[in-house]
Amino acid sequence: xxxxxxxxxxxxxxxxxxxxxxxxLSTGPGESVDFDEVLLVGEGAAxxxxxxxxxxxxxxxEVLEEVRGEKIIVFKKKRRQGYRRKQGHRQNLTVLRITDxxxxxxxxxxxxxxxxxxxxxxxxxxxxxxxxxxxxxxxxxxxxAASKAAxxxxxxAPKKKxxxxxxxxxxxxxxAxxxxxxxxxxxxxxxxxxxxxEKK
Length: 200
Hints:
This protein has helices spanning 120-132, 136-176, 181-189, 193-199, and strands spanning 2-7, 10-14, 19-23, 32-35, 38-42, 48-49, 58-68, 72-78, 83-89, 92-102, 108-110. The longest helix has 41 residues, at 136-176. The chain has 4 helices and 11 strands; from the N terminus they run βββββββββββαααα. By secondary structure, the protein is an alpha+beta fold.
């Protein structure tokens, strides 16, 4: 069975044991809330639609917690006016678990209660035993890992030297090429235009 309820100006389709977030309610965690604004209730051919509400129908929920929604950014801008405003907002919400749905005939459908898991304790003991045993083995692994890490570094160092020597050899080739100092000396030896006029 499912129902459509209205709260906080919004409508929600709910079924027993559903967890929903609604606008903040005045009740605290652990309390029970009754919704009498039921717009539709039933399932299949037995669905009853209200005009606007279904008389006698009710949905009961348990408050789990009070949270805040995701942040939204409110940004206003008027172009060419130098007007920009930025504001954040987080909505206050209440988290509910639907426990009972009562239709117009008084028929109530309740959420199935969760069973306790007694097998959790042996698993915890087994996990504790597993964590104690491998404590000695990981201590030996870091030493092996350290020696493996050192070996690639030793191999990598000669490659860097080789690259460095190749760069030095390339620099030596550029040093062997004639430099442009000859043009500077030619410019010094050539008479300036003003000097030529003075000599005449």
